[in-house]
Amino acid sequence: MSTLSPIIVWFRQDLRLCDNPALRFAAESGRPVIFLYIHDLKAAGKWQPGGAGCWWLHHSLSSLQKSLDQQQAKLVLRTGPAEDILKTFIKETGATAIVWNRQYEPWAVDRDKQIRSSLQSRDIEVNDFQASVLFEPWKIKTRTTNSFYKVYTPFMKACRERADTIRPPFKTPDIKHIFTAPESETLESLNLLPSQGWDKAFYNAWSPGEQGADQSLKDFLDNSLDRYAEGRDYPAQSEEAVSRLSPHLHFGEISPFQIWQAVHDYKKADYEPDGRTYTNEILWREFAYHLLYNLPDLPDQPMNKKFSDFEWVKSDEYLTAWQQGQTGYPIVDAGMRQLWQIGWMHNRVRMIAGSFLVKDLQIDWRYGAEWFWDTLVDADLANNSMGWQWVAGCGPDAAPFFRIFNPVTQSRKFDPDGAYIRQYIPELANMPDKYIHAPWTAPENIRKACDYPPPVVDHAQMRKLALEKYKAIK
DNA sequence: TTTTGAGTTGTTCGA
DNA sequence: GTCGAACAACTCAAA
């Protein structure tokens, strides 16, 4: 029997048992372990999880509960400000140690710093771990100026030079001592699920939780990795060759270490170019965390300050049309409806839809970021902020101002037979292939037979206007 | 210090 | 139909 006082494993965005350094530390400490999740929506301020994120969180917590149950352990749920909850909880359990895995969102960094010093002043042993990024965002520095990277390619090269430091994933630990679980709130009482039924289609599209994440990775390796470099651009279901791991990664149901290892282990000889293209995406994620950590303003302020003067259009009508998938540009609308239906959009289509909001409708990228934040199951502050700044052209590694996506050209190229469009826009089911990418060019009788809106704006005209505006802020 | 080369995902135009 | 160049100028990172 253990006479040691208990240790708390504070779960946050690391809802997994495998490759979990904090959990591993606790299990190896010999102390009785307590498993805690704190529900504190206020901590993140404006960036608290949106509707889709809450849906995922509910099911991910449920999955974690089940996994712990199998180990005869219990996940304790508590609601309230993290620091208060922890202090009470420590008093209640007599714990003298706590562990967690690090987060990098500015609000989380501040919160954790405060909690760490507050607990340490009460003689609580605090240990935190690197778990959700391959490289700590303060560790990768440029050779010449010893500052953080602002351009992806050199950052990526710097990461690859250090690839040998990427550790193999840890196994799920055997937890020998489990503390008798204190009282827990029920998962239902956290109220994470929507009261209206907008989440119906989510259930078929996703399996939140660690097992679902492992399965997604396995499916991706088995079916898609060896055609990823090319296939990743085609959003139609029958051709989709992406991993769909983004929500699992966001909630930490799987770690980048597990992915890195799995990709490198898988058919080593066939690593190029698909393995490299895919791991480059993992490194894009690293870059987003690198930027967010070093530039806490990233979610709200354009990196390129000239963009503070950009004259964005204020139009509720345009914004609503975009959000509801009623712009009259099928590829854009299909993407926005996919987002609404399953809380996720294929990356190629995110770029097209994002470009359309910012360059064709000329609406401030922050409105796009907010909408994505609320509707994406993979809403992630680092990825979302960087992605929108990139598409708007104001990011530190932005697309050149003249790179404006043509929604018709993109549609023809990446959804040639319109399968993706037809899946999400049933009104266009019978539109001939010839007109599917630009229905306004169809003869009137065909157009009239479909209940689909005409284009909200003229692309060629708006492109010209956008180019002029971009020139004006120089 | 200065120089040099490069920069995720594109489009259009003219030969 | 295909192909290469132009589309600005600037900032970043490394030599």
Characterization of the model:
The chain is built from 21 helices and five strands. The chain has 474 residues and is mainly alpha-helical. It folds into three domains: 125 residues, Rossmann fold (3-Layer(aba) Sandwich); 123 residues, Serine Threonine Protein Phosphatase 5, Tetratricopeptide repeat (Alpha Horseshoe); 168 residues, Orthogonal Bundle (DNA Cyclobutane Dipyrimidine Photolyase, subunit A, domain 3), CATH 1.10.579. Strands 3-2-1-4-5 form a five-stranded parallel sheet, with helices on both faces. α13 packs across α14. The radius of gyration is 24 Å and the shape is globular. The model has no long low-confidence stretch (mean pLDDT 96). It binds a DNA duplex (15 and 15 nucleotides) through α5, α14 and α21.
End-to-end Cα distance:
71 Å
How are the strands of the biggest sheet laid out side by side?
3-2-1-4-5
* Derived structural class: mainly alpha
Largest sheet: 5 strands, parallel
Structural Rg? 24 Å
CATH topology of the largest domain: DNA Cyclobutane Dipyrimidine Photolyase, subunit A, domain 3
Q: What portion of residues is helical?
A: 40-55%
Named CATH architecture of the largest domain: Orthogonal Bundle
Shape from CA axes? globular
One letter per element, helices H and strands E, the order comes to EHEHEHEHEHHHHHHHHHHHHHHHHH
DSSP summary: helix tally: 21
Classified in CATH, the superfamily of the largest domain is DNA Cyclobutane Dipyrimidine Photolyase, subunit A, domain 3
Number of strands: 5
CATH class of the largest domain, named Mainly Alpha
